[in-house]
Amino acid sequence: MTDENFFEKVYAIARQIPAGRVTTYGAIAEALGTRGSARMVGYAMNGSGSVIPPVPAHRVVNRSGFLTGKRAFHSESLMAELLRNEGVEVLNDQVVDFKHLFWHPLK
DNA sequence: TCCATGACTTCCG
DNA sequence: ACGGAAGCCATGG
Fold first, then answer.
1. Which of A23, A39, A40, A92 is most exposed, with the fewest beta carbons within 10 Å of its own?
2. Nearest nucleotide, CA A40 to C1'
3. A90 DSSP β-pair partners
Protein backbone atom coordinates (compact mmCIF):
# COMPACT_ATOMS: atom_id res chain seq x y z
CA MET A 1 0.00 0.00 0.00
CA THR A 2 1.33 3.40 -0.90
CA ASP A 3 0.06 6.75 0.20
CA GLU A 4 -3.65 6.29 0.80
CA ASN A 5 -4.16 9.91 1.64
CA PHE A 6 -6.52 10.38 -1.28
CA PHE A 7 -8.70 7.50 -0.18
CA GLU A 8 -8.79 8.77 3.39
CA LYS A 9 -10.03 12.13 2.17
CA VAL A 10 -12.83 10.48 0.24
CA TYR A 11 -13.79 8.36 3.23
CA ALA A 12 -13.72 11.38 5.52
CA ILE A 13 -16.17 13.31 3.39
CA ALA A 14 -18.39 10.31 2.77
CA ARG A 15 -18.71 9.85 6.52
CA GLN A 16 -19.72 13.49 6.84
CA ILE A 17 -22.79 12.87 4.73
CA PRO A 18 -25.88 13.20 6.99
CA ALA A 19 -28.32 10.30 7.09
CA GLY A 20 -31.18 10.70 4.66
CA ARG A 21 -29.01 12.80 2.35
CA VAL A 22 -27.03 11.96 -0.76
CA THR A 23 -24.16 13.52 -2.67
CA THR A 24 -22.34 13.10 -5.95
CA TYR A 25 -18.83 11.93 -6.79
CA GLY A 26 -18.07 15.22 -8.47
CA ALA A 27 -19.06 17.15 -5.34
CA ILE A 28 -16.72 15.05 -3.21
CA ALA A 29 -13.96 15.33 -5.76
CA GLU A 30 -14.36 19.06 -5.77
CA ALA A 31 -14.27 19.13 -1.99
CA LEU A 32 -10.97 17.28 -2.20
CA GLY A 33 -9.64 19.91 -4.54
CA THR A 34 -9.43 17.50 -7.45
CA ARG A 35 -12.57 18.18 -9.39
CA GLY A 36 -11.53 16.01 -12.34
CA SER A 37 -11.01 12.98 -10.12
CA ALA A 38 -14.69 12.18 -9.78
CA ARG A 39 -13.93 8.68 -11.07
CA MET A 40 -11.31 8.23 -8.41
CA VAL A 41 -13.90 8.97 -5.74
CA GLY A 42 -15.88 5.94 -6.81
CA TYR A 43 -12.68 4.00 -7.21
CA ALA A 44 -11.75 4.79 -3.63
CA MET A 45 -15.23 3.87 -2.48
CA ASN A 46 -14.60 0.48 -3.98
CA GLY A 47 -12.26 -0.16 -1.07
CA SER A 48 -14.47 1.58 1.48
CA GLY A 49 -15.84 -1.81 2.48
CA SER A 50 -12.44 -2.68 3.92
CA VAL A 51 -12.03 0.53 5.85
CA ILE A 52 -12.90 1.42 9.42
CA PRO A 53 -15.02 3.15 10.47
CA PRO A 54 -17.48 2.01 7.81
CA VAL A 55 -18.25 4.48 5.06
CA PRO A 56 -21.86 5.16 3.99
CA ALA A 57 -21.06 4.66 0.33
CA HIS A 58 -24.72 4.07 -0.35
CA ARG A 59 -25.25 7.81 0.13
CA VAL A 60 -22.98 8.54 -2.79
CA VAL A 61 -24.53 8.49 -6.23
CA ASN A 62 -23.70 9.95 -9.60
CA ARG A 63 -24.81 13.41 -10.60
CA SER A 64 -28.03 12.00 -12.07
CA GLY A 65 -29.08 10.41 -8.79
CA PHE A 66 -28.64 6.87 -10.10
CA LEU A 67 -27.20 4.18 -7.85
CA THR A 68 -24.29 3.44 -10.15
CA GLY A 69 -22.25 1.94 -7.33
CA LYS A 70 -24.83 -0.55 -6.13
CA ARG A 71 -22.97 -3.30 -7.99
CA ALA A 72 -20.07 -2.95 -5.57
CA PHE A 73 -22.28 -3.86 -2.63
CA HIS A 74 -22.85 -7.36 -1.42
CA SER A 75 -26.28 -7.18 -3.01
CA GLU A 76 -27.30 -4.81 -5.76
CA SER A 77 -30.51 -4.08 -3.90
CA LEU A 78 -28.69 -3.48 -0.60
CA MET A 79 -27.77 0.07 -1.54
CA ALA A 80 -31.39 1.00 -2.25
CA GLU A 81 -32.46 -0.76 0.94
CA LEU A 82 -30.04 1.28 3.04
CA LEU A 83 -31.21 4.52 1.47
CA ARG A 84 -34.85 3.65 2.05
CA ASN A 85 -33.98 2.77 5.61
CA GLU A 86 -32.76 6.33 6.07
CA GLY A 87 -35.89 7.81 4.55
CA VAL A 88 -34.57 8.21 1.04
CA GLU A 89 -37.03 6.97 -1.53
CA VAL A 90 -35.43 5.02 -4.35
CA LEU A 91 -37.26 4.18 -7.54
CA ASN A 92 -35.83 2.16 -10.40
CA ASP A 93 -32.27 2.47 -9.04
CA GLN A 94 -32.69 6.20 -8.86
CA VAL A 95 -33.00 8.56 -5.88
CA VAL A 96 -36.37 10.31 -5.86
CA ASP A 97 -36.11 14.06 -5.39
CA PHE A 98 -32.36 13.63 -5.55
CA LYS A 99 -32.05 17.32 -6.24
CA HIS A 100 -33.84 18.01 -2.99
CA LEU A 101 -31.88 15.44 -0.97
CA PHE A 102 -28.57 16.52 -2.41
CA TRP A 103 -25.98 17.44 0.20
CA HIS A 104 -22.85 19.42 -0.51
CA PRO A 105 -19.66 18.42 1.36
CA LEU A 106 -18.50 22.00 1.72
CA LYS A 107 -21.92 23.02 2.91
C1' DT B 1 7.99 4.05 -17.49
C1' DC B 2 3.96 2.84 -20.33
C1' DC B 3 -0.62 0.81 -20.92
C1' DA B 4 -5.18 -0.45 -19.33
C1' DT B 5 -9.19 0.08 -16.18
C1' DG B 6 -12.90 2.55 -13.66
C1' DA B 7 -19.08 3.44 -8.13
C1' DC B 8 -17.79 10.00 -13.26
C1' DT B 9 -18.54 14.34 -15.92
C1' DT B 10 -19.00 17.19 -19.84
C1' DC B 11 -19.21 18.20 -24.69
C1' DC B 12 -20.73 17.32 -29.52
C1' DG B 13 -23.74 15.57 -33.12
C1' DA C 1 -33.86 15.78 -25.58
C1' DC C 2 -30.97 11.56 -26.43
C1' DG C 3 -26.91 8.84 -27.45
C1' DG C 4 -22.16 8.41 -28.34
C1' DA C 5 -17.35 9.90 -27.69
C1' DA C 6 -13.61 12.31 -25.21
C1' DG C 7 -11.43 14.01 -20.92
C1' DC C 8 -10.23 13.54 -16.48
C1' DC C 9 -7.08 11.63 -12.23
C1' DA C 10 -5.29 7.67 -9.44
C1' DT C 11 -4.06 2.71 -9.07
C1' DG C 12 -2.26 -1.65 -10.60
C1' DG C 13 0.31 -4.73 -13.72
1. A92
2. C10
3. A95
A32 contacts A13 by C-beta, under 8 angstroms: yes
A60 phi/psi in degrees, rounded to 5: -110, 120
Measure, in angstroms, how far nucleotide B13 C1' is from residue A95 CA. Answer: 30
In the DSSP assignment, the letter for residue A59 is G
Q: What is the largest CA-CA distance in chain A?
A: 39
Q: How far is the CA of A9 from the C1' of C1 (A)?
A: 37
Q: pLDDT by residue for chain A (107 residues), tens digit each?
A: 555 689 999 999 999 999 999 999 999 999 998 888 999 999 999 999 999 999 999 999 999 999 999 999 999 999 999 999 999 999 999 999 999 999 999 98
Residues facing A102 on adjacent strands: A22
